[in-house]
Write a structure and sequence with these properties.
heterodimer; A: 237 residues; mainly alpha; two-stranded parallel sheet; 12 helices; B: 92 residues; 4 helices; flat; disordered C terminus
Chain lengths: 237, 92
């Protein structure tokens, strides 16, 4: 049979007089080549995912409500803001920092952040002498409960393949130049151990509150990809 | 296990393309796949811990397509003798 699934769906939608769904879609599903006969039929990958979810729900293996809750967690409850709170606390409370470096998972749990996977989190401290960079050369292991979903560049083979071999070169591509006098250490994550960088507290922030410090901490500083830069306004505070 | 996934040290992928921020998911289906992966991981991997070996057993081209490194996007389901065993683990 020469009729493809897409042909069939396109014909079915045309017959039904469906109005193309425009505006709500975002990202890859909203992007179509010029002239492509499109938006009333989801992309192949979107159809495949819908089919998979329907099949698994039909078999009683997953519950769509539970999937909604997981998506809400990924999008709204985990993310770099959690990690930033850990960093800011460590900056203002030396006893907390000591606990964080000695038993990271327990200290992070003190702030209410607990992972849902059976893995450990190890916090590594950036100092004037040592800069740390985290990678997962085998896939995309990442401290999700503290940083949320890993960014695309972290998962890319370009990053994974060269972060350990040429960390200074990779850091330059990320916009970070590390002085040759500073040692660079690369931490290769595993399923069992996730690494989290405690960035250096920027000079000039001594009078800032813990809450204000949280706003300074970026996702990439907690991977070791970037240093924290103060804006002119923050420097004046 | 050697394979395309073990890319540390490879020099063929070019410079890192960096973005300082991006949404958690770039399309709705990505979010559903992440949720499905987590939800089924506990079901499937507890019975038959093959999650890692399944990834490492992907055809190299499919693996790169899965990562968006090749045109096409999304790996083809790989079928070979023995896969029924995995299917059964999903159907419980």
């Amino acid at each position: 049979m020469s009729t493809t699934r897409r042909d069939f769906l396109s014909a079915a939608v045309s017959l039904a007089g469906a109005v193309p769904a425009v505006g709500a879609a975002s990202g890859a599903e909203a992007v179509h080549p010029a002239g492509h006969d499109h938006s009333d039929v989801p992309s192949d990958i979107a159809l495949r995912v819908k089919s998979l979810e329907s099949l698994l729900a039909e078999k009683g293996i997953v519950d769509s409500t539970a999937l909604d809750a997981l998506v809400d967690t990924f999008e709204n409850k985990v993310g770099p803001r959690n990690g930033a709170k850990v960093v800011a606390r460590a900056w203002v409370d030396p006893a907390y920092k000591a606990r964080l470096l000695a038993n990271s998972k327990a200290a992070i749990a003190e702030l209410g952040f607990t992972g849902w996977q059976d893995n450990d989190i190890i916090v590594i401290d950036n100092t004037p002498q040592v800069h740390n960079l985290v990678v997962c050369t085998l896939c995309s292991c990442y401290p999700w409960s503290l940083l949320g979903m890993p960014p695309t560049w972290y998962k890319s083979t370009a990053y994974r393949s060269r972060a350990a071999m040429d960390p200074r070169g990779v850091l330059r591509e990320l916009g970070t130049v590390i002085d040759n006098a500073v040692e660079v250490r690369v931490w290769d994550s595993t399923a069992a151990e996730r690494y989290f960088v405690l960035p250096e507290r920027p000079a000039g922030t001594e009078s800032m509150s813990e809450a204000a410090l949280v706003d300074l901490v970026t996702r990439d500083s907690m991977i070791g990809a970037r240093k924290i830069a103060l804006s002119t306004e923050e420097t004046r505070e | 296990m050697n394979g395309i996934h073990d890319c540390g040290g490879m020099q063929c992928y070019g410079p890192v393309v960096y973005a300082s921020s991006e949404p958690a998911f770039h399309a709705a289906w990505e979010a559903r796949v992440a949720a499905l992966t987590h939800a089924t991981w506990y079901v499937k991997n507890a019975q038959l811990p093959t999650f890692r070996s399944d990834i490492e057993g992907l055809d190299p081209v499919d693996y790169l397509r899965m990562l968006g490194e090749c045109a096409g996007g999304g790996a083809r389901p790989r079928r070979k003798a023995g896969d029924q065993r995995r299917d059964r683990s999903l159907t419980g």
